[in-house]
Amino acid sequence: MATRYEPESLLPLTPAVFHILLALANGERHGYGIMQEIAATTDGQMRIGPGTLYRSIKQMLAAGMIEESDERPDPTLDDERRRYYRLTGFGRHVAQAEAMRLARLVREAEARRLLPETGGMPGIEGVS
Amino acid sequence: MSGTPRDLPWALGLSVLIYRRLLVAYPPAFRHEYGAQMVQVFRDCCRETSYRGGAVELGRFWLLACGDLIVSALAERRQEEWHMTRTHWIRLGSLAAIVGGAVATLFVGLDLIIAIAQLLDEKSHIGLALFPVHIVSWASPALILFYILALLGLQARGADRMGAVGWIAITTAILGMLLTELGNGLTSVVMYSQANGCRTPLDCNFYDPNHYMKMGYLVGLLGSMVFMVGMIAYGIAALRRRILPRQNWLPLVVGMMPLLNLAASIVALLVSPGTDYAGDQKVMIMLDTVTLAFAIVWILLGLAMRPRGDSDLPAQAVTVEPAE
């Protein structure tokens, strides 16, 4: 899908949008699948409701970051009414740009000794 | 207390029923597009949470879902309202630029024809030479309103990409336009009050002991400069940020037009108007040509701003905050 945006013009992304992009990075998913993936990757710390999820999806569709998929992983095992979403090339660029922005921030935090050298801070491991 | 899905079938059914009713909080278009999907996701979440933690966990999920619903419904309604308002301004601005440009083209075009006719035949309709004075007096204040609406529409079109820079630049341009109008108004009032005693607008000894005309000219010049600064700043930003689907150079051209007008005025002064009738008409033709070009640029800008269907309108920004 053609888009009129530069990836950097959409940064910084909101947490919900970035987590949805992350959830779709490994393949297409439906709404509930996205929520499960977000909960799994954040150990349940990040929970978004259906309203926030579909508002984000609506805006990401409009911005050309994701698109609806016509294919079903296994139609016999799934409700055909579910809509699946996948990343577009542009969405992947946006996710990369945001990841790089966050990585730069983490490096800044490291340089200012805000991060422990080896796992001293609870919940943060192996940031390098 | 925990349980299995079998323990709470009524709770699941009731939850879904209530949630489906609560979706009325969202705008109809959003509900129509995503309502069924949201209910499905809500049902899946209820099933999972009640399986994991029974009624307590289901209650916690309800709290999250209610907070999410309130925050996201309000935000969606606010955004839709803003989007509608913005769309309205874009359409209005586009129309204003086209109509304003067309009216100006008509008047200036007529004046150009008269000036050319009089250049070819000096004796024909001398009185018509004062036509531009009448135009400036009556059409200009109306045109300025059209152009201000056009600038507001332009800013609405590029609001998501121009941000504060756009507002500052466009406000400067509008203030410049108003100043120009004030100056031109002052000059034209003096000219209009004595127009009947003149041969042409350039060949006239106006009685102006208080120097209102000079004052008006200076205020007009200052206004043109302010407009130019604002509009050129806006035009450069618009060119870089590509606020229009096409012809992004047009705002910059609008900003540079006063320069052309100034150049034409300087040339007009250099050729000493008022000493030769044919020379006066040539100067009028030159000034009219510049004004005509300005009017045509406004029409082109209006056409470039004009949305071609809903898909051509600017997308809503990605600004969703999670309700946690």
Written account of the structure:
The complex is a heterodimer of chains A (128) and B (324). Chain A has 128 residues and is mainly α. Chain A is 45% helix and 8% strand. In chain A, helix 1 crosses helix 2 (31-41). The longest helix of chain A has 23 residues, at 89-111. Mean pLDDT of chain A is 84; it is low at 124-128. Mean pLDDT of chain B is 81; it is low at 320-324. With 324 residues, chain B is an all-alpha fold. The longest helix of chain B is centred in the first third of the chain and has 93 residues, at 28-120. The A-B interface holds A 4, 9-10, 13-17, 31-32, 35, 46-60, 62-63, 65, 79, 81-83 and B 26, 30, 33-34, 36-38, 40-42, 44-45, 64-65, 67-69, 71-73, 75-76, 161, 241-242, 245, 315-324.
Secondary structure layout plus pairing:
The complex is a heterodimer of chains A (128) and B (324).
Chain A: H1 15-24, E1 29-30, H2 31-41, H3 50-63, E2 66-69, E3 84-87, H4 89-111
Chain B: H1 9-22, H2 28-120, H3 131-193, H4 212-241, H5 250-270, H6 277-305
Helix pairs in contact in B: 1-2, 2-3, 2-6, 3-4, 4-5, 5-6
Strand proportion of chain A: 5-15%
Shape of chain B: rod-shaped
**Quaternary structure of the protein:** heterodimer
Largest interface by residue count? A-B, 33 and 36 residues
Q: Unreliable runs of chain A, pLDDT <50, ≥5 residues?
A: 124-128
Spatial separation of the terminal alpha carbons of chain B:
24 Å
* Largest beta sheet: strand ordering of chain A: 1-3-2
Number of helices of chain B: 6
**Taking all residues together, what is the mean pLDDT of chain B?**
81
Which regions of chain B are unreliable across 5 or more consecutive residues at pLDDT < 50? Answer: 320-324
Largest sheet of chain A: 3 strands, antiparallel
Rg of chain B: 30 Å
Helix content of chain A: 40-55%
Q: Tell how many strands the DSSP assignment of chain A holds.
A: 3
- Portion of residues in beta strands of chain B equals under 5%
Q: What structural category arises from helix and sheet content of chain B?
A: mainly alpha
Please report the distance between the alpha carbons of the first and last residues of chain A. 35 Å
Mean pLDDT of chain A: 84
> How large, in whole angstroms, is the Cα Rg of chain A?
17 Å
